[in-house]
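Quick question about two entries, pasted in order.
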Amino acid sequence: MPARAIRTVSILRWLATGAALVLLTACNLATPSPAPTVTPAAPTLAASTPTPTTKPAIQRVDIADNKLPSIAVSQGTTVVWTNRDQAPHTTTAGTPGITNGPWDSPVLDSGKEFSFTFSQPGEFAYWCRVHPGMTGKITVR
Protein backbone atom coordinates (compact mmCIF):
# COMPACT_ATOMS: atom_id res chain seq x y z
CA MET A 1 0.00 0.00 0.00
CA PRO A 2 1.39 3.35 -0.95
CA ALA A 3 2.23 5.80 1.81
CA ARG A 4 -0.40 8.19 0.68
CA ALA A 5 -3.12 5.56 1.07
CA ILE A 6 -1.86 4.64 4.51
CA ARG A 7 -1.91 8.27 5.47
CA THR A 8 -5.48 8.67 4.19
CA VAL A 9 -6.62 5.59 6.12
CA SER A 10 -4.97 6.97 9.28
CA ILE A 11 -6.67 10.32 8.83
CA LEU A 12 -10.02 8.61 8.26
CA ARG A 13 -9.57 6.53 11.41
CA TRP A 14 -8.65 9.62 13.35
CA LEU A 15 -11.68 11.47 12.03
CA ALA A 16 -13.96 8.50 12.74
CA THR A 17 -12.66 8.25 16.30
CA GLY A 18 -13.10 11.99 16.79
CA ALA A 19 -16.63 11.88 15.38
CA ALA A 20 -17.49 8.99 17.64
CA LEU A 21 -16.21 10.91 20.64
CA VAL A 22 -18.21 13.97 19.64
CA LEU A 23 -21.34 11.86 19.26
CA LEU A 24 -20.83 10.15 22.62
CA THR A 25 -20.26 13.47 24.32
CA ALA A 26 -23.32 14.96 22.65
CA CYS A 27 -25.42 11.97 23.74
CA ASN A 28 -24.29 12.37 27.33
CA LEU A 29 -25.14 16.07 27.26
CA ALA A 30 -28.51 15.54 25.57
CA THR A 31 -29.75 12.96 28.09
CA PRO A 32 -28.20 13.76 31.40
CA SER A 33 -28.08 11.00 33.94
CA PRO A 34 -30.48 11.54 36.76
CA ALA A 35 -28.79 12.96 39.79
CA PRO A 36 -28.50 10.44 42.55
CA THR A 37 -31.16 10.98 45.18
CA VAL A 38 -30.16 10.81 48.77
CA THR A 39 -32.88 9.68 51.10
CA PRO A 40 -32.01 10.37 54.70
CA ALA A 41 -32.44 7.36 56.90
CA ALA A 42 -35.24 7.61 59.39
CA PRO A 43 -33.89 8.01 62.87
CA THR A 44 -33.95 4.76 64.69
CA LEU A 45 -34.97 4.83 68.27
CA ALA A 46 -34.00 1.96 70.43
CA ALA A 47 -37.14 0.07 71.21
CA SER A 48 -37.28 -0.02 74.92
CA THR A 49 -39.82 -1.85 76.92
CA PRO A 50 -40.19 -0.18 80.26
CA THR A 51 -39.59 -2.47 83.13
CA PRO A 52 -42.47 -2.43 85.52
CA THR A 53 -41.47 -0.86 88.75
CA THR A 54 -44.18 -2.07 90.99
CA LYS A 55 -43.48 -1.56 94.61
CA PRO A 56 -44.74 -4.26 96.89
CA ALA A 57 -47.99 -3.16 98.52
CA ILE A 58 -47.82 -2.43 102.21
CA GLN A 59 -50.88 -2.09 104.40
CA ARG A 60 -50.31 -0.60 107.85
CA VAL A 61 -52.66 -1.68 110.63
CA ASP A 62 -52.85 -0.17 114.10
CA ILE A 63 -53.69 -2.34 117.08
CA ALA A 64 -55.50 0.21 119.23
CA ASP A 65 -58.22 0.34 121.86
CA ASN A 66 -57.81 -3.41 122.44
CA LYS A 67 -59.11 -4.16 118.92
CA LEU A 68 -57.65 -6.12 116.01
CA PRO A 69 -59.07 -4.66 112.79
CA SER A 70 -60.52 -6.69 109.92
CA ILE A 71 -59.20 -5.60 106.52
CA ALA A 72 -59.10 -6.70 102.89
CA VAL A 73 -55.86 -6.66 100.87
CA SER A 74 -54.57 -7.84 97.50
CA GLN A 75 -52.50 -10.97 97.15
CA GLY A 76 -48.82 -10.13 97.70
CA THR A 77 -49.53 -7.34 100.19
CA THR A 78 -47.41 -7.07 103.30
CA VAL A 79 -49.45 -6.18 106.38
CA VAL A 80 -47.56 -4.31 109.10
CA TRP A 81 -49.26 -4.31 112.50
CA THR A 82 -48.19 -1.66 115.03
CA ASN A 83 -49.23 -1.90 118.68
CA ARG A 84 -50.61 1.55 119.62
CA ASP A 85 -51.94 0.37 123.02
CA GLN A 86 -50.03 0.50 126.28
CA ALA A 87 -50.78 -3.21 126.86
CA PRO A 88 -48.82 -5.89 124.96
CA HIS A 89 -50.56 -7.75 122.12
CA THR A 90 -49.92 -10.41 119.47
CA THR A 91 -51.25 -11.03 116.00
CA THR A 92 -51.72 -14.76 115.63
CA ALA A 93 -53.41 -16.59 112.73
CA GLY A 94 -56.25 -18.85 113.82
CA THR A 95 -59.00 -18.60 116.39
CA PRO A 96 -58.70 -18.09 120.16
CA GLY A 97 -56.83 -21.02 121.66
CA ILE A 98 -55.98 -22.51 118.23
CA THR A 99 -52.89 -21.32 116.44
CA ASN A 100 -53.31 -22.90 113.02
CA GLY A 101 -52.29 -20.29 110.49
CA PRO A 102 -49.27 -19.05 108.63
CA TRP A 103 -48.13 -16.39 111.12
CA ASP A 104 -47.72 -15.86 114.84
CA SER A 105 -46.08 -12.69 116.05
CA PRO A 106 -44.05 -12.43 119.22
CA VAL A 107 -45.59 -10.35 122.00
CA LEU A 108 -45.57 -6.75 120.79
CA ASP A 109 -44.99 -4.10 123.41
CA SER A 110 -46.32 -0.59 122.80
CA GLY A 111 -44.89 0.90 119.58
CA LYS A 112 -43.51 -2.43 118.28
CA GLU A 113 -44.34 -3.81 114.84
CA PHE A 114 -44.81 -7.17 113.15
CA SER A 115 -45.25 -7.84 109.43
CA PHE A 116 -46.43 -10.71 107.26
CA THR A 117 -46.77 -10.98 103.45
CA PHE A 118 -49.97 -12.61 102.21
CA SER A 119 -48.99 -14.65 99.15
CA GLN A 120 -52.16 -16.77 98.97
CA PRO A 121 -55.76 -15.60 98.60
CA GLY A 122 -58.29 -16.48 101.25
CA GLU A 123 -59.78 -15.42 104.57
CA PHE A 124 -57.53 -15.51 107.59
CA ALA A 125 -58.94 -15.17 111.09
CA TYR A 126 -56.51 -13.91 113.73
CA TRP A 127 -56.45 -13.16 117.42
CA CYS A 128 -54.32 -11.88 120.30
CA ARG A 129 -52.75 -14.60 122.50
CA VAL A 130 -52.51 -12.11 125.40
CA HIS A 131 -56.17 -11.07 125.09
CA PRO A 132 -58.08 -13.98 123.45
CA GLY A 133 -61.23 -11.87 123.12
CA MET A 134 -59.48 -9.66 120.56
CA THR A 135 -60.10 -11.05 117.05
CA GLY A 136 -59.92 -9.83 113.48
CA LYS A 137 -59.89 -11.10 109.92
CA ILE A 138 -57.67 -10.51 106.87
CA THR A 139 -59.34 -11.12 103.50
CA VAL A 140 -56.85 -11.59 100.68
CA ARG A 141 -58.17 -11.11 97.12
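Here is the second entry:
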Amino acid sequence: MNCFIHNSAPAIGICKHCQKGLCSQCATDTGAGLACIGSCVDVVNSINSLVDRNMQISSKQKSGGYLGSAFLGGLGAVFLLFGLSGVENASLPISMGIGFLIFAVVLAARTFAWPKFEKMATPTADPNSTETSPVNPKNR
Protein backbone atom coordinates (compact mmCIF):
# COMPACT_ATOMS: atom_id res chain seq x y z
CA MET A 1 0.00 0.00 0.00
CA ASN A 2 1.20 3.49 -0.81
CA CYS A 3 0.52 6.89 0.73
CA PHE A 4 -2.78 8.50 -0.26
CA ILE A 5 -1.10 11.90 -0.87
CA HIS A 6 2.33 10.78 -2.09
CA ASN A 7 1.45 7.89 -4.41
CA SER A 8 5.05 6.76 -4.87
CA ALA A 9 5.90 6.67 -1.13
CA PRO A 10 5.17 3.47 0.79
CA ALA A 11 2.60 3.80 3.55
CA ILE A 12 3.78 3.21 7.10
CA GLY A 13 0.21 2.88 8.41
CA ILE A 14 -3.33 4.13 8.07
CA CYS A 15 -5.11 7.07 9.64
CA LYS A 16 -7.30 6.03 12.56
CA HIS A 17 -10.05 8.40 11.38
CA CYS A 18 -10.17 8.44 7.57
CA GLN A 19 -8.44 5.06 7.01
CA LYS A 20 -6.14 6.45 4.28
CA GLY A 21 -2.61 5.14 3.82
CA LEU A 22 0.03 7.48 5.23
CA CYS A 23 3.75 7.83 4.56
CA SER A 24 6.20 9.11 7.18
CA GLN A 25 5.76 12.71 5.92
CA CYS A 26 1.95 12.66 6.20
CA ALA A 27 1.54 10.72 9.45
CA THR A 28 1.70 11.87 13.03
CA ASP A 29 1.64 9.48 15.96
CA THR A 30 -1.03 10.41 18.52
CA GLY A 31 0.20 7.87 21.03
CA ALA A 32 -2.61 5.43 20.29
CA GLY A 33 -2.78 5.44 16.51
CA LEU A 34 -1.73 7.39 13.46
CA ALA A 35 -3.46 10.48 12.07
CA CYS A 36 -3.15 12.66 8.99
CA ILE A 37 -1.03 15.70 9.86
CA GLY A 38 -3.31 18.67 10.42
CA SER A 39 -6.64 17.33 9.25
CA CYS A 40 -7.41 14.30 11.45
CA VAL A 41 -5.33 14.84 14.60
CA ASP A 42 -8.16 16.41 16.64
CA VAL A 43 -10.64 13.72 15.64
CA VAL A 44 -8.20 10.90 16.46
CA ASN A 45 -7.43 12.48 19.83
CA SER A 46 -11.18 12.63 20.50
CA ILE A 47 -11.53 8.96 19.54
CA ASN A 48 -8.66 8.04 21.85
CA SER A 49 -10.14 9.95 24.80
CA LEU A 50 -13.53 8.33 24.16
CA VAL A 51 -11.97 4.86 24.17
CA ASP A 52 -10.05 5.65 27.37
CA ARG A 53 -13.21 6.93 29.08
CA ASN A 54 -15.18 3.84 27.98
CA MET A 55 -12.46 1.56 29.33
CA GLN A 56 -12.61 3.32 32.71
CA ILE A 57 -16.40 3.06 32.81
CA SER A 58 -16.45 -0.59 31.80
CA SER A 59 -13.93 -1.46 34.52
CA LYS A 60 -16.32 0.05 37.10
CA GLN A 61 -19.36 -1.66 35.59
CA LYS A 62 -18.72 -4.91 37.46
CA SER A 63 -19.72 -3.36 40.80
CA GLY A 64 -23.07 -2.42 39.26
CA GLY A 65 -23.68 -6.08 38.50
CA TYR A 66 -23.15 -6.98 42.16
CA LEU A 67 -25.51 -4.29 43.40
CA GLY A 68 -28.07 -4.91 40.67
CA SER A 69 -28.28 -8.64 41.29
CA ALA A 70 -28.55 -8.08 45.06
CA PHE A 71 -31.29 -5.46 44.58
CA LEU A 72 -33.27 -7.61 42.15
CA GLY A 73 -32.89 -10.66 44.38
CA GLY A 74 -34.19 -8.71 47.37
CA LEU A 75 -37.07 -7.31 45.35
CA GLY A 76 -37.92 -10.79 44.11
CA ALA A 77 -37.89 -12.14 47.67
CA VAL A 78 -40.21 -9.34 48.86
CA PHE A 79 -42.72 -9.98 46.05
CA LEU A 80 -42.54 -13.73 46.55
CA LEU A 81 -43.06 -13.48 50.33
CA PHE A 82 -45.90 -11.01 49.82
CA GLY A 83 -47.60 -13.39 47.39
CA LEU A 84 -47.13 -16.38 49.68
CA SER A 85 -48.49 -14.51 52.71
CA GLY A 86 -52.06 -15.39 51.76
CA VAL A 87 -53.11 -12.22 49.98
CA GLU A 88 -55.93 -12.43 47.40
CA ASN A 89 -54.87 -12.73 43.76
CA ALA A 90 -51.43 -13.88 44.84
CA SER A 91 -50.46 -15.10 41.37
CA LEU A 92 -49.25 -11.67 40.23
CA PRO A 93 -46.83 -10.98 43.12
CA ILE A 94 -45.62 -14.58 43.07
CA SER A 95 -44.99 -14.38 39.31
CA MET A 96 -43.21 -11.04 39.69
CA GLY A 97 -41.12 -12.40 42.58
CA ILE A 98 -40.06 -15.44 40.55
CA GLY A 99 -39.30 -13.22 37.55
CA PHE A 100 -37.13 -10.87 39.63
CA LEU A 101 -35.32 -13.81 41.22
CA ILE A 102 -34.60 -15.36 37.81
CA PHE A 103 -33.36 -12.03 36.47
CA ALA A 104 -31.15 -11.59 39.58
CA VAL A 105 -29.63 -15.05 39.06
CA VAL A 106 -28.97 -14.33 35.37
CA LEU A 107 -27.37 -10.97 36.18
CA ALA A 108 -25.25 -12.51 38.93
CA ALA A 109 -24.13 -15.32 36.62
CA ARG A 110 -23.24 -12.80 33.92
CA THR A 111 -21.33 -10.66 36.41
CA PHE A 112 -19.47 -13.43 38.24
CA ALA A 113 -19.11 -16.38 35.88
CA TRP A 114 -19.32 -14.96 32.34
CA PRO A 115 -15.85 -13.29 32.30
CA LYS A 116 -14.28 -16.64 33.28
CA PHE A 117 -16.01 -18.40 30.39
CA GLU A 118 -14.98 -15.64 27.96
CA LYS A 119 -11.34 -16.08 28.97
CA MET A 120 -11.59 -19.83 28.50
CA ALA A 121 -13.22 -19.44 25.07
CA THR A 122 -10.69 -16.87 23.79
CA PRO A 123 -8.03 -18.61 21.70
CA THR A 124 -4.49 -17.94 22.82
CA ALA A 125 -1.73 -17.18 20.37
CA ASP A 126 0.80 -19.88 19.65
CA PRO A 127 4.20 -18.56 20.82
CA ASN A 128 5.94 -20.57 18.07
CA SER A 129 3.79 -19.09 15.31
CA THR A 130 5.26 -16.49 12.96
CA GLU A 131 1.82 -15.25 11.98
CA THR A 132 1.05 -11.70 13.08
CA SER A 133 -2.26 -10.60 14.50
CA PRO A 134 -4.27 -8.11 12.39
CA VAL A 135 -5.28 -6.30 15.58
CA ASN A 136 -2.64 -4.59 17.66
CA PRO A 137 -4.05 -3.91 21.17
CA LYS A 138 -1.71 -0.94 21.58
CA ASN A 139 -3.33 0.80 18.58
CA ARG A 140 -6.89 0.79 19.90
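Reply: The chain has a mean pLDDT of 81. The longest helix spans residues 41-84. Hope that helps.
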